[in-house]
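ok so I'm stuck.
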Amino acid sequence: MTAFFALATSLLWGLADFGGGVLTRRLPALTVVVVSQAIAAAVLGAIVVATGGWSEAGPRLWFAFAAGLAGPVALICFYKALALGPMGVVSPLGTLSVAVPVGVGLFLGERPGPVQAAGIAVAVTGVVLAGGPQLRGAPVQREAIVLTLIAALGFGTVFALIAEASTTVPGLFLALFVQRLVSVAVGGAALYGSVRRGAPAFPAPGFPWASLPALAFVGLADVAANGTYAVAAQHGPVTVAAVLASLYPVVTALAARGLLGERLRTLQAAGAGLALIGTLLLATG
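replied:
not stuck anymore, here's the structure
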């Protein structure tokens, strides 16, 4: 069950990142984050009311609140790092986020077996290579490295926090709802500040209504991924769930190849293969 839900997390996050990346070619990154998360919050609010999730309110919601603070900060830092580039360095560095939940799991006493340990090493190596690390060429700005490491820390923190935010299904819906409300508030404040400094929130014609379905997909896929990750972490070792969930860059790369015709470099294809081998070792270990 852990492997199934963690791999579902990778699929959902990978598709959400792909959709978000395509949308940011037409819209400001902050706008994509705020609008997509607001749509997800509205849907989650309706689910919480329908399932009676409010009865699950308790101290664990502070984990969701903290995840809501960390998530948009990480996204903003990551998008800015991608803008500074080169993406061939920034993207694989972002996968270091897996170190946070894996470290938490080890600290709490989890000890993967030899086969799973080998699977973790192979899968993480594959994910980094699948990101297409740029081994030579354009210089890397120190600011881009710092921002990427902050983003990786933020993403990893969300991994760890959301796994602790609830123990029941209605409680999980409530936790995700609280997380999204906080994310929208933080992202909205950042967007407001950006607009005050003169940056446009929308393209010249106004709100991009034609992009609304894609924005909804990004937001809902992201929140669904948080949910499946929480389930995966609750039903098995966090070390395994976190590594399998971190395979999302492979999904993004394959989606770009299939839908946009982007060619995978040999290094990326090899990385995708290693990631799959690591997944099999983790699932069977």
